Amino acid sequence: MIDKRYHVFISTTGADMQPERSVLAQTLASLGFFSWGLETRTPLTTAFARRQIDDCDYFVLLLGSRYGDLSASGVSYVHLEYIYAITKQKPVLVIMHESPDSRAPEVQEPTKEGQRKFEDFRRQLQRERDMVVTFREPRELEVILRHAMPQLTQRYPSLGWVRPNDAPMQALQLENEKLRQKNAQLMASRGRGAASSASSLDDDMSATMGDSGVLDVPVVRGDESMSFDYRVHAYQDGNFRELRPRRQMTWNELLVVIGPGFRPPAPEESFARLLNEYLNISALRDVQETMPRAHATARCQINVRALHAIKVQFKNNQWIIPVGRDSRHHILWGLSDAGEERLNELMAVQSLRVGS
């Protein structure tokens, strides 16, 4: 018999759902699932939550009578986690209270705006998800999960995690060690200089050179601005529209957004990921210029030409440099000494502003 386990991310609104969350976690453990989730959210925990969602097999959203703590964009962290989960095509089970208004006053949304956002979110979940179940008391959740989780795993099969046998595992470890040694020998023979010869960033740079081989891209100052457009799904009144807002940022601001993503060094694809993640949490203010009542955004994607220009400029400003290759022979890019120094200065200034 195969001992297969699944990882489940539990998304709830916080202390108001602590009894229900405890029942969920205990029941999932008894059913053989690993459960993850965050009880307290801040802007600093957003990236960690997304990594957990990336690694999970299933996403369970537990909703009571609150919309939850708001992010800087005005969207609750629970709502952002849900949006991120569906963009990653994670199977979702929604468990919501049958009668939110009947719950105690201290676990209700305290403001009219919060109540409106909660109702909009609740209707969105009922409209979008095919697996939505309701409960009245925490003790009902165990029975609900024992019926719903087998249905979820059957309807949406996942690879899960299988405990390896000792013998195959030892053989795999030996093979991995051989491959690591071989890769180290190849890297040593190629040397550091060859690491920059085959990247698409170098292709981008050569495309900006004239016949003389001299770069046509000037070095920019940090306070100079860059304008770009991007695609975004904007949610309003239970519906969404795809918009193409325009954003203007200084190169200093772009370095603060992108730079930390290359500590430690990372593949070139990280440029798009970092920019799109930043836009996902900050796009609402751009969207509300066109849709004033919009309350959520998702699926932000920066214009390809703008992405190309940013990558080229970061290299031309000598903020990033090639530093080697990963296990798949993809070139890794890291902050140069100049880029590291500049980023530290900007982060220090930002910390002073926040502190004041």
Would you mind describing this structure in some detail?
By secondary structure, the chain is an alpha/beta fold. It has two domains: 4-161, Rossmann fold (3-Layer(aba) Sandwich); 197-355, Orthogonal Bundle (Arc Repressor Mutant, subunit A), CATH 1.10.10. 44% of the residues lie in helices and 20% in strands. The chain has helices at residues 18-30, 46-55, 77-87, 112-128, 140-155, 166-190, 200-207, 251-258, 270-282, 284-287, 304-316, 337-355, and strands spanning 4-11, 33-36, 58-63, 92-97, 132-135, 161-162, 225-236, 239-243, 246-250, 266-267, 296-302, 320-325, 331-335. Strands 1, 2, 3, 4, 5 and 6 form a six-stranded mixed beta sheet that branches. Strands 7, 8, 9 and 11 form a four-stranded antiparallel beta sheet that branches. α3 links the parallel β3 (58-63) and β4 (92-97). The radius of gyration is 24 Å and the shape is globular. The model is unreliable at 191-199 and 205-216 (pLDDT under 50).
Mean residue pLDDT: 82
Write the element-wise H/E pattern from the N-terminal end onward. Answer: EHEHEHEHEHEHHEEEHEHHEHEEH
Q: Count of DSSP E strands?
A: 13
**Helical content (DSSP H or I, runs of 4+):** 40-55%
What overall form do the CA principal axes indicate? Answer: globular
N/C terminus separation: 60 Å
CATH class of the largest domain: Mainly Alpha
Low-confidence stretches: 191-199, 205-216
Summarize the biggest pleated sheet.
6 strands, mixed
Q: Architecture of the largest domain, CATH level 2?
A: Orthogonal Bundle
What Rg is obtained from the alpha carbons, in whole angstroms? 24 Å
Strand content: 15-25%
Fold-level CATH name of the largest domain:
Arc Repressor Mutant, subunit A
Structural class by sheet pairing and helices: alpha/beta
Number of helices: 12
- Structurally, the number of domains stands at 2
